[in-house]
Design goal:
mainly alpha; two-stranded antiparallel ribbon; 65% helix
Length: 285
Amino acid sequence: MNKKANILSRANVITCIYLTKLVLLLNKLVNRIVTLTHLLMYNFNPKRRSHHAKGYPVAYAAPGPKFSNGRIILLAAGILLVSNFLTYMFSAAKEDKKEMVYSIKTESLYLIDKASQYIADVSVFETKVRQVARNLDIPPEWLMAVMYTESRFDPSVQNFKGSGATGLIQFMVPTVRELNNRMGTQYYMSDIRRMEADDQMVLVQEYLETIKERYGEFNSLTDLYLGILYPRAIGQDYCYTLFAYPSKKYKQNSGLDENKDHAVTVSDIDSRLKRMFPTAYMAKK
């Protein structure tokens, strides 16, 4: 039994002792009142007077107590036991609920262990990711999955295939230019590479909000990733082609061609995300 339950149990014992004393006093008082009432009824009973006048013996039988003291003590003991049992059960259930809520709140964010390789203060980064996810109305697991596949959480990484992209979600030069116009800033690609991950999350949110305004809500992990990779494909059917051989874009993104048919389709993206990030893929809004 926890400390709080112990305190409540002691309080119940003390309360029951005083209640028992009170009930015993009340029982004594009630018994005396009943006895007095019967005595008065006996003295003023016309039949008794008639019998007494004729010389008949008339015996007076005092009424017994309605409740004996022993019964009252047993009743109080029963109440005490039930009260203590209910107190214990209630306190235990409350503590279990608190522990469950605490464990939910403190459960590590999906893939956060991977982020620690490049981010010094992962707790600050995790808080920022959760905040951005709430603002975008998406599960944080989706956000973590797309950042991992784009940059492995390295905020300074550059695309090694020559696209010029950099950062957590691989910002392109035109994207940064548009964000500057939207936010009233003057960031260069070198500025983004020098940013801490939690500061770069501000740009991630601004970019994804822009995509939401143009193409609608992100209803799946696949939608979110398409919003970064190829926004026009959001809402298209699985056969929709993003890149095809022999284009330069296909060569830069050939790793996304799951079935190796020389075309990257929405189906390829969906299959890849499901294979690589099953937890995030199954996460619901």
